[in-house]
Amino acid sequence: MIMKSPKIGYLSNAALIALLLLIVGCATVPVTGRKSLNILPDSELLSMSLQEYKDVLKKSKLSNDPAEVQMVKRVGKRIASATEQFFTEKGMKSEIKNYKWEFNLIEDDKVANAWCMPGGKVAVYTGILPITQDATGLAVVMGHEISHAIAKHGNERMSQGLLAQLGAAGLSAALSTNPGATSQIFMAAYGVGANVGVLLPYSRIQESEADHIGLILMAKAGYDPREAVPFWKRMNEKGGNRPPEFLSTHPAPETRIKDIEAKIPEAMKYYKRK
Ligand SMILES: [Zn+2]
Fold it and tell me: Model pTM?
């Protein structure tokens, strides 16, 4: 249980939320320009990310297929440098100045998933490789996941999750006094693992943003963005036991593919074959 601080006890929850938002304010999502609510300090998320990433790697079996591991690292690096280039061109380089990119392939054929934590800590599960099929398919997935991270969708989800679970009064104290709950929400907010206790699926608007930004990043990295359409078709056909990140509920599969098709002409302007 989280103790209410006596100093802020007299404030109503609504006033407290307003105050928090005033202090920490909004972040602007690159490319789409949407204002998103990011209550948690990025520095805090970054240090959690480093710890949680280490823990996940320690508990997982890493792939020892050199060709597949190399592919994940190569595609990841190309998208990372496209991302850095993109932020530099927009004069927003400071947004990712603390990123220390890392790309790992986790051996688990049952998990068709991938995620990126703040700071550029990426994991891909071997279960998604039959669906990505090649480096370009993998670029769709990694571009999408890296886009969730740079758009700070995890912070937005975590802010919402903490508010819902702990209430406004508990929020400010949560990171220091309730590390267990915070860690659980952190893992859920970044889609880590297939069996988390708290499910915080990305919202429809976040998914569309990640698709949109991901197309631009993959194109800038030299991967044909048109390949996103057949990739999502293959993903939809797979059905069955999908982890939260790739649940088909938002957006509906047909809508998603239509939306992606509509964004391809924009992405093609960034596409240079490498
Ligand atoms: Zn997503």
Answer: 0.82
Just list the catalytic residues: 145
> For residues 207 and 256, is the Cβ–Cβ distance under 8 A?
yes
pLDDT at residue number 39:
72
Q: What is the pLDDT of residue 178?
A: 61
State the distance from the centre of ligand 1 to the C-alpha of 114, rounded, in angstroms.
9
| Cis ω before 118 (30° cut-off from 0) | no
For 243-269, write each residue's pLDDT tens digit.
556 655 556 778 889 999 999 999 999
Higher pLDDT: 70 or 241? It is 70
Region 116-140 average pLDDT: 95
Q: Cα of 52 to ligand 1 centre, how many Å?
A: 20
Which residues have CB less than 5 Å away from ligand 1 (the ion)?
202, 207, 210
Q: Please classify residue 59 by burial: count the beta carbons closer than 10 Å to its beta carbon, then call 0-12 exposed, 13-18 middle and 19+ buried.
A: exposed
Q: Under the phi-then-psi rule, with left for phi > 0, alpha for psi from -120 to 50, and beta for the rest, what region is 25?
A: left
Distance 21 CA to ligand 1 centre (A): 25
Question: Mapped to the 3 state alphabet, what secondary structure does 23-56 carry?
Answer: HHCEEECCCCCCEEECCCCHHHHHHHHHHHHHHH
Average pLDDT rounded to a whole number, residues 27-44: 79
C-beta separation of 31 from 162 below 8 A: no
Could you tell me which residues come within 8 angstroms of residue 170 by beta carbon, excluding any fewer than 6 positions away? 2, 4, 162, 178
For residue 237, what are its two tokens?
């056909």
